[in-house]
Amino acid sequence: MNAEQNELLTRITPGTPCGQLLRQYWQPAALVDEFNPVFDARMAKRPVKALKLLGQDMVLFKDASGAWGLLDRDCAHRGADLSFGRLESAAQGGGLRCPFHGWKFAADGRCLETPAEPAGSKLCERIKQRSYPVIEKSGVLFAWLGDDNSTPPPLPDFDCFTAPTTHSFAFKGLWHANWLQAFEVGIDPAHPSFLHRFLQDEALSEIGDNPAGKQFRSASAGTAGGEHWPMTRIMREFAQPDIRFENKPWGMQLTALRHMTEALTHVRVTQAIFPATFVIPLSSTMTITQMHVPVDDTHTYWYTFFTSFAGPLDKEAMRAQRQQFITLPDYLPKAGRHNGWGYNAEEQLTSTYLGMGEEDINVHDQWAVESMGAISNRTREHLGTSDKVIMANRRVLLKAIDTVQQGGLAPGIADAAQSPLMVGPDTVDGIAPADDWSNWWQSTARAKREGAAWLAESTAPGAPAAP
Questions:
Q1: DSSP code for 43
Q2: Burial of 272 (0-12, 13-18, 19+ CB in 10 A)
Q3: pLDDT in tens, 10-67
Q4: Per mean pLDDT, which range of 196-205, 283-292, 392-401, 411-420 is the poorest?
């Protein structure tokens, strides 16, 4: 890749070609939990947050009626910072008021008052603060940053968005790096055999339920010789996957085959949802959907949705596990370049391939993403056959940028006409018959879905099956 292409794919601020592309998609702006006084005491009196999204400074707030408002942060009058605005009560008529001259704005950006103007002034009627549509889905507030007055596509009926609140949990964290390298680590089928390698296995019964980062300690679906194998052993012993991908309405379906014996193959099917989301299995009954939203060119928030196809989730336990490694209220990682991401040379010699802990494998990915630099210099790369998914995704991204620049429609979930095809998408991680792995993974995924009570209606006879 040349330097010009690298710039094209990574720069996302207003006016850039890639920034224009990403604005054709709903973007996660904040967790609903960020407005919960339990996690941020400031929200009890004033549910207002300053945020940056795709390089734009914004203010997100909940008004007196409970409506969400997302506005440009600079006041339409003289540019003062609205994140310091006065949030008016219902008795005061609601809205967010700029303390500079008292101009007040509704959640939809309408100017409600310009109190310093002469009596009878019509100025207020001609003013509108740029506002952005906000929808709440699965514990996350999504923002539409497309052109003013443009019509956003519907969010697709993916499992992470249709699961009931009892079976869904969302969390987030910040990485100090560009959005594309964050996403590319997640869709790389080869890296788990190395980056997340454990040098020893442990008894599966000792792992417990839903550890914070030990999904590779859990048993893979299926058996080898009548024995359940932990993912640690499979990833360690079979490190040269046969990687395949196929186009889907949302992006790409990725398959990594690790041939164990003549009779058995380990199958890992994951999904790449264009432009910056992946879906992977956490266990035989839970998936992770992770979205990557650029704060600016050199910072990225990841948003993870955990979706259970079995019982309800213990959200408090899951939150507590992850808060060990994240500092609230800004969801900043405790590990990073400043402390070597927790690197321990003795651990690297004795227990993990990387040497950065066993409890939270998310820091493994964080190191890979951040250690490349704020924006990876792809002109210095030497890609191999195992990077075929990375290369394919870059080709799609380049084509999509060009399409939008030419006035065309962005692909995947930006295309409302494709919405009916946006179901699932499903994943699997398990040991299959080598000569029938394709049927095995589909039947295994189907059985998981049929066992989910909240999916009973969509899996009824005659209903379309998720891919």
A1: G
A2: buried
A3: 999 999 999 999 999 999 999 999 999 999 999 999 999 999 999 999 999 999 999 9
A4: 196-205
Q: Residue 409 CB: number of other CB atoms within 10 A? A: 14
Identify the architecture of domain 157-455 in CATH.
Alpha-Beta Complex (3.90)
What is the rounded CA–CA span in Å between residue 259 and residue 4? 39
Going from N- to C-terminal start, the domains of the chain cover 28-143, 157-455
Angle at 433 between CA 449 and CA 198, to 5 degrees: 80
Q: Which two tokens stand for residue 404?
A: 């939008």
Q: Is the pLDDT assigned to residue 220 strictly greater than 90?
A: no
pLDDT at 216: 65
**Could you tell me the two tokens for 242?**
């046969």
Average pLDDT, stretch 86-111? Answer: 97
Torsion over CA: 94, 99, 101, 106 (sign):
negative
Which residue type is seen at 111? C
420: how many CB neighbours lie within 10 A of its CB?
11
Q: CB count, 10 Å around CB of 440?
A: 20
Q: Could you check whether 28-143 and 157-455 share the same CATH topology?
A: no
92: tokens are 């005061």
The whole-angstrom separation of Cα 324 and Cα 338 is 18
Q: Which two tokens stand for residue 88?
A: 């008016």
pLDDT at 231: 83
Q: Tokens 């506005």 identify what position? A: 71
Residue corresponding to tokens 């704005």: 105
Max Cα-Cα span within the chain: 86
Half-sphere exposure of 98 (CA within 13 A, CB side): 25
Instruction: Give the model confidence (pLDDT) of 303-314 as tens digits.
Output: 999 999 999 999
Q: Return the structure tokens found at 260.
A: 């164990």
Residue 407 sits at φ, ψ, to 5 deg, of 90, 10
Q: Is 291 left (phi over 0), alpha (psi -120 to 50) or beta?
A: beta
User: pTM for this one?
Assistant: 0.94
CA atoms within 13 A on the CB side of 130: 14
Q: Which CATH superfamily is domain 28-143 in?
A: Rieske [2Fe-2S] iron-sulphur domain (2.102.10.10)
